[in-house]
Design brief:
heterodimer; A: 218 residues; mainly alpha; 73% helix; B: 674 residues; 7 strands
């Protein structure tokens, strides 16, 4: 039985798109982390629905691991970091809010350009879903570009990974459970290292605003 | 096929066990080298069995990664190269059992055994792998293992320097190989060799030309073709001798193997320019290689330069084969290919023998400078005999193997002179001329090397304390010396066998046979040329016997009296001998326009003011390195300048770097849509 119907897919892809748009607009780091949590939960549900058809134990383990790492572990660490250094997370951006919205609109329109068409051929029946996923990918990248705070940038990268998973899912590019497990493990390690690193960066620079870390150029 | 895995397993056990034994010198030496011998002998048996059976076993192990599969194919070409690798590795490992002893208490023997086993196994994998990604992995493994062997004696600053240059050059080469395979993938959509071979026929000629050029840069760097050779003269001497023997004798041939694979397997319709280019590079490499060797007085460097020379000779055979293939003269192409394949085997044997001979001398005298040897034949007569056999073989003197393969190369070039238009004919004439020159100069160089090392009087006090090396060292050299003679004597049989290897690459069906090879003789192009190596051998033995007999008959009644040589009232000293530098000086003077010698005269006077009576007079003669200032330094400057410009985009903001990613992503999509 098909659990991942076009309607359900559209709802979840819109939800993921919505979270990344809000991630760009929010001024509070704790809300950003929660938005990422919501986005990851949506991805996990999508994976779960697609896995019902295959009844694979390994896939189920991969989904449980995804939930554990992306929905629980990573947000928990980020929230803990925010709690520890409440005044040191920068949520400032290079562009102001109206310009940020304008760029997001432009990036969404860009996905309709002719040179994106070859990607649509991967699954012509899911054309709308693929457009939304591509817009999500581009806006996630933009989140990392526009934000000055290290945490927001990290969330942008993680959101990008979620967007790629959703694109692969709608494009029918089946990912093996082993690959999904590998990605989840790497996120787990990355978040662990990042939290240690953030503390070290804070000790060294007294800030987590990446634009103040000029010494990194040498 | 499990047998093949067992071979790899033997090397793996040898490597890991040796590393585990670490600094237990004796145990690590025995473990590492005995497993290397076992693996090589097993590989030798496997390759002989496969070649004789005429079958082409294929072994595929799928991988979890897309496009990568662990595919091995034991076709005639792969198995022939595996045979060469295993033959030389067996004898080099026997030699190593004794040679490695002089590293005891100085360096970690376990590490040497580890990388040595990995090195041999990776060379076998390079020759047998049939998936481009897998090939690149094992190619890298071979490069890294050999790099660590080059810098094994890491307390010597020069070795580290040589290793760094080798590391850099080999990776530049690998970058070109990757480009060649990627281009093939873009056309065929596969990294499997068989799929590439089938799919590449539809590729436009511009793409295939580019693939050939990338392959030439990539594999030519490993083979040491001039001007891509700069790493070779310093890296080969730096490694332990048994490794030098393998690097010079075998590893550089993997470059030749892949050039054959690219030209005759992947792209069998090679263009004429490709053959001519290989011929020209062969002529230049052989001639310049031997000239640089002549000017050298570091014995291992001298041998390394001769490797460049011999790669040039192999390229002459190969280039002529490519030209004939481009003209659809397949039966003539077989002559060139057989000459190249035969010389590949021959060079591996006599070069390994010469390196081992040099290594034995170095381990006794503790120097690589030929000028400090002399008179070693009295102390090391067996080593001298083995070195003499190697010297005669590399100088292409009958009845040794080097003579036959060079003779075959000449025949291939002569056929080209007879058949083509003016420009191509001229290239063949010049190539034949270069080969003739090379043969003569190589003989002169080894007169110098053997004379200065083993004959006359000692020039160093160390020589008085030298003795014949241990049994394993002599056994390794004796095996190679015997092989040198056997491969010369049975050249007809070997040619017949190589004809089958050539037939597996060149379509000979429906063409007139140009090689008639039997045990006792080889006939080229319907009696255009004929040779019988057994007859030459028997003739030479008979002539020597007759001369010895006549001498004996004439002198048996004469009384032999021994007296001191009249020396004009002064004592005979090593200063009265001609030095290696002195010997080669006339050659350098003749070729000074090419070699650009740097001569420095040092005169010390009894009275500095009068300058009438010189106390000492010394001439330092060395060659100017023309490749560094004219090719590599400008290239380096260009790379550094470009990198300097590129550094401007390194602004230090992660935001900017992610922006670059976004721009690149959109840019790539835009380009792909064009």
């Amino acid at each position: 039985m098909h659990y991942l119907t076009p309607q359900i897919s559209l709802i979840f892809s819109t939800l993921i798109f919505g979270t990344v748009v809000l991630l760009n607009l929010t001024k509070k780091d704790s809300i950003a982390v929660k938005l990422y949590m919501l986005q990851s939960a949506a991805i996990a549900i999508l994976l779960l629905l697609s896995s019902f058809q295959k009844l694979s134990l390994l896939l189920l383990i991969a989904i449980i691991a995804t939930i554990a790492v992306k929905v629980v572990f990573a947000p928990y660490f980020f929230l803990k970091l925010i709690k520890r250094h409440p005044s040191n997370f920068s949520h400032s951006t290079f562009l102001n809010t109206p310009l940020t919205v304008a760029v997001m609109v432009l990036l969404s329109i860009l996905t309709q350009a002719s040179f994106f068409k070859p990607l649509i051929f991967l699954s012509p029946s899911s054309q709308d879903l693929l457009f939304i996923s591509m817009a999500t990918i581009l806006i996630s990248l933009f989140l990392s570009i526009n934000r000055k705070g290290a945490l927001s940038q990290a969330l942008g990268v993680l959101s990008l990974e979620n967007s790629i998973v959703s694109f692969a899912l709608f494009a029918g590019l089946e990912q093996s459970p082993a690959l999904q497990l590998g990605i989840t493990a790497s996120i787990f390690i990355w978040v662990t290292i990042a939290s240690i690193f953030t503390t070290m960066i804070f000790r060294q620079f007294g800030s987590l605003d990446v634009s103040s870390m000029r010494e990194l150029t040498e | 096929m499990n047998y093949f895995y067992s071979i790899l397993l033997l090397f793996t056990i040898g490597a890991l066990g040796s590393l585990f034994l670490g600094k237990k010198d004796q145990a690590a030496n025995l473990w590492g080298n005995l497993f290397a011998i076992a693996g090589s002998v097993a590989g030798l048996i496997f390759s002989i069995q496969t070649l004789l059976s005429g079958t082409t076993p294929i072994l595929t192990v799928p991988s979890a990664f897309p496009l990568l599969s662990f595919t091995f194919k034991f076709d005639q070409l792969s198995t022939y190269f595996m045979l060469i690798i295993c033959t030389i590795a067996t004898l080099a490992s026997i030699y190593a059992l004794g040679y490695v002893k002089h590293y005891y208490k100085k360096y970690n023997i376990g590490v040497l055994g580890f990388f040595y086993n990995i090195f041999i196994a990776s060379m076998i994998l390079v020759a047998t792998s049939h998936n481009a990604l897998f090939f690149l992995i094992v190619w890298e493994l071979m490069s890294l293992a050999s790099y660590f062997l080059v810098i094994y004696e890491n307390r010597e600053h020069n070795n580290i320097k040589a290793g760094s240059l080798y590391f850099m050059m080999t990776h530049v080469g690998t970058a070109f190989i990757v480009l060649a395979f990627l281009l093939m993938y873009s056309v065929t959509g596969s990294f499997e060799f068989e799929a590439i071979k089938t799919g590449i026929v539809h590729a436009p000629s511009q793409i295939t030309n580019l693939i050939l050029l990338f392959a030439l840069f990539g594999f030519g760097t490993k083979a040491g073709i001039i001007p891509l050779h700069i790493w070779l003269p310093s890296a080969h001497p730096a490694a332990p001798t048994h490794v030098s023997a393998l690097m010079s004798g075998v590893m550089i041939k993997t470059g030749i193997y892949m050039l054959i694979r690219f030209s005759l397997f992947f792209l069998p319709a090679v263009p004429l320019w490709w053959g001519l280019l290989i011929l020209i590079l062969g002529a230049v490499s052989s001639l310049l290689g031997v000239l640089y060797a002549l000017a050298e007085h570091d014995i291992k460097k001298l041998l390394a330069y001769h490797s460049i020379e011999n790669i040039g000779i192999i390229l002459l055979g190969l280039g002529s084969a490519f030209v004939f293939v481009s003209a659809h003269l397949y039966s003539l192409a077989a002559i060139g290919l057989i000459a190249a394949l035969y010389h590949t085997l021959n060079h591996a044997t006599f070069k390994a023998l010469l390196f081992m001979g040099a290594g034995s001398v170095i381990s006794e005298t503790h120097t690589r400078n030929i000028e400090e040897y002399g008179g070693l034949i009295k102390h090391m007569p067996q080593t001298a005999l083995f070195f003499l056999i190697g010297s005669m073989a590399i100088s292409a003197l009958p009845p040794f193997n080097g003579f036959f393969s060079e003779w075959m190369t000449f025949q291939s070039l002569f056929q080209g002179v007879l058949r083509f238009d003016v420009l191509t004919k001229l290239t063949f004439i010049l190539s034949a001329g270069a080969l003739a020159f090379t043969g003569g100069l190589a003989a002169a160089c080894f007169v110098k090397a053997f004379g200065a090392t083993f004959l006359a009087r000692p020039r160093n006090q160390e020589v008085a304390h030298t003795k014949e090396p241990g049994v394993p060292l002599r056994a390794g050299m004796a095996g190679l010396a015997a092989l040198t003679i056997v491969l010369g004597f049975f050249s007809g049989t070997v040619t017949g066998f190589l004809n089958k290897v050539a037939a597996s690459l060149i379509n000979l069906s429906g063409t007139e046979t140009m090689i008639h090879a039997q045990t006792q003789s080889v006939n080229i192009a319907n009696n255009f040329a004929f040779i019988s190596m057994p007859q030459i051998f028997i003739g030479l033995v008979a002539a020597l016997t007759v001369v010895a007999g006549i001498t004996y008959l004439l002198t048996r009644t004469q009384k032999v009296s021994r007296n001191i040589t009249w020396d004009c009232g002064s004592d005979l000293s090593p200063r009265m001998e001609i030095t290696a530098t002195g010997f080669s000086r006339s050659f350098i003077t003749v070729f000074q326009k090419v070699l650009k010698p740097l001569k420095e005269t040092e005169v010390e006077y009894d009275d500095e003011r009068m300058k009438y009576f010189p106390k000492s007079n010394a001439i330092h003669l060395e060659l100017q390195d023309i490749y560094m200032p004219y090719i590599y330094q400008p290239l380096r400057k260009l790379v550094l300048d470009t990198a300097g410009q590129m550094k401007k985009i390194q602004v230090g903001y992660t935001n900017a770097y992610i922006l670059y990613i976004l721009i690149a992503l959109i840019g790539i999509l835009f380009v792909l849509a064009l």
